[in-house]
Design a protein that fits this description.
It is a single chain. By secondary structure, this protein is mainly alpha-helical. Helix content is 61%, strand content 5%. Helix 9 runs antiparallel to helix 10. The longest helix has 35 residues. The N and C termini lie far apart (69 Å). The N terminus is likely disordered.
Length: 369
C-alpha cells in the first residue's frame, strides 16, 4: 500500500504546484495597457464561460459581444487575451495599416507539437518567413510568373464543366475536385485520380482537418496552461500529446510525400513544370555526375508547397461557391455575362485567360468575388 499512497501524494503535490503556477501566472500577466471592452471575467478562469459552446457556429456566438461592445472586443481566458474584430474596417485599420506593429502571430503550443510551425501561415516575421515568402512570390506572386500555370487552370476548369454537365447533382463535390486537382498539379505536377478517391488528396484533406482543430483558440489545455509541458506523459491531463503525435505524423507525411513524388519525377526526367520542380531546378548544384540540393532550400520548398495547398484549397471552394450562390440570386447578372461571352468568345469554345481583357463584365464579377 505504501507505494500507492506515495504515488497519490505525488499526484496531489503536482496538482497543487501546478495550481500555484497558474495563479502566479495570472497575477503576473495583468496587462499594463488598456484592452478593448468585453464581458466581465471571473476569478482565475477569466472569460472561460464566454467562449463559443459546442454546436454553435463561432460567428453567431460573437454577434452578441458585437452588439454590446462595438467593433472590437476582448476576452481573457486563463491569462490568455483574445482580441476579437467584428468589423472589417476596424480589422483593416489595425491589422492592415499598422501591420508592422501588429503582424506577429500568436504562440500556439499545441500547433507546434503537431509540427505546424513550418507552415508559412504560422511563421513570425523573421528570416525564415522572408525566405519562404520570397520563394512563393518568385513563382506565383506576379502576373508574369503565375501566367505559366494558366494552361493548368484552363484544363481543370474544362474538366469541371464536363463533370458538372454529366452529373449536376454533385456540382459541389466536383468543385472540391477542381480546387484540389488544380493546386496539386501547380504545386507538384501531380495528376489526381478522378474516378474515385485520390490517396494524396485524402491525406492532404486529413491534414487540413487536423490544422483546423489545432488552431481553435484555447481548445487545447497546453495553450491555456503552458506549464503543462513540464508534466510527464503519464500524468493525467496530458493526453493531448498523443493526439499531437498523430497529427504531426500526418502533417509531415503531407509535406514529404508529394514533394518526394515531384523530386522523383525530376530524377526520371518525367516531371511536369510545377512550383516544386521549378524551384528545385533553380537550386540544384552538380557535384560530378550527382545532383545536390541545399537542405535549407529543400525544406523551404517542401513546406511552402504544402502551405500553398493549405491556403488555397478551402478558400478557392468557398469563393466559387459564393459566386454560384450570388448568381442564383441575381439571374439577370447571369444573362448579361452569358451575352458578353457569346458576343466576344462565341459558342464553340470556353473562355480563356487571353479573353479576359475583352470581357469587362466577366472581369468585374471576378474582381467582386
Amino acid at each position: 500500500m505504501a507505494p500507492d499512497l506515495t504515488l497519490q501524494f505525488g499526484y496531489v503535490a503536482v496538482v497543487i504546484a501546478l495550481g500555484l503556477l497558474v495563479i502566479r501566472r495570472l497575477l503576473e500577466q495583468r496587462p499594463n495597457y488598456r484592452l478593448p471592452p468585453g464581458p466581465k471575467p471571473l476569478p482565475l478562469v477569466g472569460n472561460l464561460l464566454d467562449l463559443p459552446p459546442k454546436g454553435l457556429p463561432e460567428f453567431k456566438h460573437w454577434l452578441k459581444p458585437k452588439d454590446i461592445h462595438g467593433p472590437i472586443s476582448s476576452i481573457t481566458v486563463m491569462g490568455v487575451t483574445l482580441i476579437i474584430f467584428h468589423d472589417k474596417n476596424a480589422a483593416h485599420a489595425i491589422m492592415g495599416k499598422n501591420a508592422q506593429k501588429t503582424s506577429a502571430r500568436p504562440q500556439l503550443n499545441f500547433a507546434q507539437l503537431c509540427g505546424l510551425e513550418n507552415l508559412l501561415i504560422t511563421h513570425q516575421y523573421d528570416d525564415k518567413y522572408r525566405k519562404h515568402r520570397k520563394m512563393v512570390h518568385q513563382e506565383i506572386g506576379t502576373k508574369g510568373s503565375s501566367a505559366g500555370f494558366q494552361p493548368i487552370q484552363e484544363k481543370e476548369a474544362l474538366k469541371f464543366v464536363l463533370q458538372t454537365f454529366n452529373d449536376p447533382d454533385n456540382m459541389m463535390v466536383h468543385l472540391k475536385t477542381l480546387a484540389a486537382a488544380t493546386i496539386v498539379k501547380i504545386c507538384y505536377g501531380y495528376e489526381i485520380e478522378r474516378k474515385g478517391s485520390d490517396p494524396l488528396v485524402d491525406l492532404i484533406e486529413h491534414a487540413l482537418d487536423n490544422l483546423e482543430l489545432a488552431f481553435v483558440p484555447l481548445s487545447w489545455a497546453i495553450d491555456a496552461v503552458p506549464a503543462l509541458k513540464y508534466l510527464p506523459d503519464w500524468f493525467p491531463g496530458t493526453s493531448y500529446r498523443e493526439t499531437a503525435r498523430e497529427f504531426k505524423a500526418t502533417n509531415e507525411a503531407t509535406a514529404e510525400l508529394p514533394y518526394s513524388f515531384a523530386k522523383r519525377q525530376m530524377a526520371l526526367n518525367a516531371h511536369r513544370p510545377s512550383y516544386v520542380s521549378n524551384l528545385l531546378q533553380q537550386s540544384m548544384v552538380m557535384n560530378g555526375n550527382d545532383v545536390e540540393f541545399d537542405p535549407a532550400d529543400e525544406e523551404a520548398i517542401k513546406w511552402t508547397a504544402v502551405s500553398l495547398y493549405v491556403a488555397g484549397a478551402d478558400s478557392t471552394v468557398a469563393v466559387i461557391q459564393s459566386v454560384i450562390c450570388a448568381l442564383l440570386i441575381f439571374p439577370e447578372v447571369v444573362q448579361k455575362a452569358q451575352e458578353e461571352i457569346d458576343r466576344v468568345v462565341g459558342t464553340d469554345r470556353l473562355p480563356t485567360f487571353d479573353d479576359r481583357k475583352n470581357l469587362p463584365y466577366i472581369d468585374g464579377i471576378v474582381l467582386e468575388s
